Amino acid sequence: MGQLRVEKVQEFIKQEASKIILNELKDPRVGFVTVTQVEATGDLRHAKIYVSLLGSDEQKAQTWEGLQKALGFLRSEIGKRLRMRFSPELTLHLDESLDYSDKIQKLLLKIKEDEDNR
């Protein structure tokens, strides 16, 4: 299978997962979620969906729980839309890079403030 096909499927899964989470999940626990990336294996049997969650720690925990419960629904909906012989096995992973970059930004601002106050 070509790399181009894998990339197209990854992008398709990312778009569809975003739509499904935003418009079709009825679980009240699911808050603000951004699908940041999808990594599929070369044979397209498995795909990791990376999500970024917004909110308090409690809200993030509830959203994560709701997403885990919705994984079967997500897989079946993506499978219908992909129109492939089989649907990839999906796993969810937290993308904490936004949290990390936010933390770095705050540290840099604090350093600048400390230097300005000298």
In words, what does this structure look like?
The protein has 4 helices and 3 strands. It is an alpha+beta fold. The chain has a single domain (3-116), classed as GMP Synthetase, Chain A, domain 3. A 3-stranded mixed sheet has the order 1-2-3. Helix 1 (3-24) crosses helix 3 (71-82). It is found in: Cytoplasm. InterPro entries: KH_dom-like_a/b (IPR015946), RbfA (IPR000238), RbfA_dom_sf (IPR023799).
In short:
This protein is of the alpha+beta class.
Number of discrete domains: 1
Q: What is the H level of CATH, i.e. the homologous superfamily?
A: K homology (KH) domain
Largest sheet, described in full? 3 strands, mixed
Q: What percentage of amino acids are in beta strands?
A: 15-25%
Could you tell me how far the N terminus lies from the C terminus, measured between alpha carbons in angstroms?
Answer: 60 Å
Q: Which CATH top level class fits?
A: Alpha Beta
Write down the Rg.
18 Å
Number of strands: 3
Helix fraction, binned, reads 55-70%
> How is the largest sheet built, in terms of strand order?
1-2-3
Give the rounded overall mean pLDDT. Answer: 90
Structural class: alpha+beta
- The geometry reads as elongated
GO molecular function: ribosomal small subunit binding
Family: Belongs to the RbfA family.
Main location: cytoplasm
InterPro entries: KH_dom-like_a/b, RbfA, RbfA_dom_sf
